[in-house]
Write a structure and sequence with these properties.
The protein has 367 residues and is α/β, with parallel strands linked by helices. 36% of the residues lie in helices and 14% in strands. The protein contains 14 helices and 11 strands. A hairpin with a 2-residue loop joins strand 10 and strand 11. The protein starts with 8 loop residues before the first strand and ends in a 6-residue tail after the last helix.
Length: 367
Amino acid sequence: MAGPLAGVKVVELGGIGPGPHAAMMLGDLGADVVRVERPSGGLDVTGGQGGDHLMRSRRSVGLNLKDEADKATLLALVEKADVVVEGFRPGVAEKLGIGPDVCLERNPRVVYARMTGWGQTGPMAHLAGHDINYVGLTGALHAIGPSDKPVPPVNLLGDFGGGSMLLVQGVLAALVERGTSGQGQVVDAAIVDGTSTLMQFVWALKAIGLWQDRRGANLLDGGAPFYDTYRCSDGGWMAVGSLEPQFYALLLEGLGLDAADLPAQMDPSGWPRLREVFTETFASRNRDEWTKVFAGTDACVTPVLTMEEAAQDEHLRARGTVLDVNGAVQAGPSPRFSRTSPDAPTPPPVPGRDNDAVLSDWGVAPA
């Protein structure tokens, strides 16, 4: 496998959500990721349909971790691994006899990366939760949506932004540190921690009086009429992000408006009037017409595409941001590397398909 992480061996203990997403990213970048799951296939979020492409770029080994022989095989894989990715509730891995203490004793160089919502410690560590709960507790959900109601941003902010991305960052940092110390360590990646880190920009603005702790009242939360979405005559939408004065001038030019007839851009008292004018103007033409008006300009005005449309977008296709792999449209690996470009993602494996090949490749004798 090609990529900047070629040669890195990862054992992923089967789960759902941010843990598999983190393992996917490591695999996309060239790591040899082996997903360990029950021989039956374990958790299935596809409703039996198969083809979960979050499971791409890795191989699969079927092991029953309650069986002593299979657990011995897992620990033998851990001895060969650089990284273990584990997403159980706190204490579950320890009860199974595959927790960080056991794994680090077998392999002192291994990075044991733990992915949870609440973290390994704290009064809520033992509780269940989902993305909406984690982003709700951190203040992030309170900041998103119209003034009358918080709106969950799919599960991108918590599970993946504050979860899997944080886990990958922790894994890579621990691998770099291991190059100096020669020692592995435990990475405690919690979605609440990662989401809070993502909120630091907002915390910083609030600390200096530039962010109000209410929705729809700020520059970047839809409060400003020049940073919002607008409905077009055909029901499509345009995204407007004309913050800087020079970009705002191009917005007005494209809309056919004269700044002399409007309130000043940065005067909040005039924002309701600006929004009214922008809403009426965007509603006068369809989305494709507005897209042509602003194409090639620095007005920072773009169409809001559906996923189907995004898959055909010229820019995204040119960069490989969206790929068609064996008939499945999906996100391309990122970021890009000048010397060590990774291979195209491989399809998700059949659970347990790769037992013999992985054991042979990693030099592990069957139990």
